[in-house]
Amino acid sequence: MQYRQLGQSELKVSAIGMGCVTFGREIDRDNSFGVLDHALAQGINLFDTAEAYAKGASEAILGEWIDARKVRDKMVLATKVSGKLTKERVTSSCDESLKRLKTDRIDLFQLHNWDGNTPLDETLGALEALVQHGKIRYIGVSNWQTWQLAKSLIRAVKHAGIRFESIQPPYNLVQREIETDLLPLCLDQQIGVLSYSPLGAGFLTGKYSRGGDVPKGTRFDIIPGHQPIYFTEPGFRVLEGLQNISQETGRSLIDLSLAWVLGRPGITTMLVGARSPSHIDQALAAENNPLSDELRERLGKL
After folding, report:
1. Residue 14: which CATH number?
2. What integer is the mean pLDDT of 279-301?
């Protein structure tokens, strides 16, 4: 397992990170413990959750596991606050997350969304206070646009204030918008990139087809909002091209998709969600079998 510096922080994070979105939503506590045990044993040290995941159940399960296994010092713990990002909301959310996670500190506390109604100075002031009190170590964002991140970086320089060390965007063979300006900004400013959804919420596994029914219990059934993103003509063209390359090379759609993201410049960590230990093994196999330059180029042209 490779480990990389997260932004300009002192944190070293594994190239594959454990996305805890499935805990309490798609798998129960016992199965979640099995996934977490396997992830840690395989060298994964970044565990990313959020208060919004299963209405706090993900944090609660992760906290129970941390407490039961006594592994807090072996991991980089990340979570997120969402909604209205006022001083009171950010502060109370952090305190509630600390309780659910059964810890006294969060390594990476992230803003899950952009709040255009709350002054950025107010939000950052609340985060700075949390750092000063030792409740969080570093801060990051998720699902921000490039101009929003740039605005925060300018503010940090101007006021000698706290800066975001990471951003968490979706990134896969279909969703590649971050290549235009977000990735170049992050590379230039040393911002860590924790990419998520490398399989397009399951779209790139081949379980969906043009005009076909959405299988019950799949991610696209549980969260229909994914459908407009991927169920498009360009999306299905990418999927069909990926299927052709898979048949030609003998490598699965999953293996090709994961290996492509893992080898992309500027990606610090690829977060993977898992419903079983085997899903973690798929990511590990992709890391251990990198793409050739020729194959990477072909996939990129899809």
Report:
1. 3.20.20.100
2. 97
Alpha-carbon span 77 to 62, nearest angstrom: 10
45 assigned to some structural domain: yes
pLDDT at 212 over 80: no
Cβ atoms within 10 Å, residue 48: 28
Residue 281 forms part of a structural domain: yes
The verdict on residue 249 lying in a domain is no
Q: Say which amino acid occupies 101.
A: L
Per-residue tokens: 140: 């990051």
Catalytic residue among 3, 53, 171, 230: 53
> What is d(CA 243, CA 251) in angstroms, rounded to the nearest whole number?
10
SS3 category, 163: coil
Interacting residues of 301 by C-beta distance below 8 A, sequence separation 6+: none
Q: Which range marks the domain in which residue 181 is found? A: 3-200+258-292
Contacts 24+ apart (CB under 8 A), 282-286: 282/254, 282/255, 282/258, 283/16, 283/258, 284/1, 284/16, 284/42, 285/255, 286/254, 286/255, 286/258, 286/259, 286/262
Residues 255, 240: Cα–Cα separation, whole Å? 15
Residue 163 has pLDDT above 80, yes or no: yes
User: Could you give the 3-state DSSP secondary structure of residue 214?
Assistant: coil
The reply to whether 53 belongs to the active site is yes
pLDDT number for residue 4:
97
User: How many residues appear in the chain?
Assistant: 302
Q: Is the pLDDT of residue 225 over 80?
A: no
pLDDT digits (tens, 9 = 90+) for 59-100: 999 999 999 999 999 999 999 999 999 999 999 999 999 999
The count of structural domains within the chain is: 1
Q: Indicate if the pLDDT at residue 179 is higher than 80.
A: yes
Closest alpha carbon to 106 in 160, 66, 163, 153: 66
Examine residue 239 and state whether it is found in any structural domain, yes or no.
Answer: no
Q: Cβ atoms within 10 A of the Cβ of 299, count?
A: 19
pTM: 0.95
